[in-house]
Structure formats: C-alpha cells, structure tokens
Input
Amino acid sequence: VQLQASGGGLVQAGDSLRLSCAASGPTNNRYLMGWFRQAPGKGRDFVVAMSRSGSSSYYSDSVKGRFTISRDNAKNTVYLQMNSLKPDDTAVYYCAASSGALSTYRNPSLYRYWGQGTQVTVSS
Output
C-alpha cells in the first residue's frame, strides 16, 4: 500500500490541525495504522496507532487528550486531529501501516509502509 500524508502547516500554540493519510487501497481490517513524528535531531517517536478493525486506539502520553485518530474507510484515509497544539509538537509527522501484531504498535521499525511526512510547526 502507498501512503500520502498531508495537512501540515504553521500554526500558533493552542491552534488545531488535521492531518490526513490517504492510502492507495483499503486499510480497514488489513493494516495497523500509526502516526509517528520526528523533531530535528531526534528519533522517530510514536504518536498514535489504530488497530486493524479501528476498534482500538493507542496514544502516547504526550498527546493523549489532545490528539484523535480516526479512519474513513470509504476514502481509504486515516486522520489525525490535533488540538491544543504546543511548540513541543513541532515535527515532521509520518503515517505508517503495519502488517504486524497489534502489540508492536509503538515500534516504528516494524511498520513496512510509510508516507512521505508532513511538517507541523507550532509557534509560541
């Protein structure tokens, strides 16, 4: 599957953004979907993941309560709604798909398919 992320931009602290990850084919019931982010000079960090069925979602502590992952199966698109953005959220955001076990959702090395990344910059 090919993934294309979009929706990033420059916003102020407290603003919201919605990222989109458009897949070339169905992801529902096929792939574990995740969002990761990478700030300059840092590794790729887990943000959120959704199970294949969409019934379960898992968030990093740093975004819990502010970010929400969702999926539109008709559009083969996964979304990341980001509210109450902080300067620490500044990073390149990547969507990814994995055929692996749900228990591996935090591990970026186990995701096989990646989007190209979209820059999110939050000014203070």
About this structure: The mean pLDDT is 96.
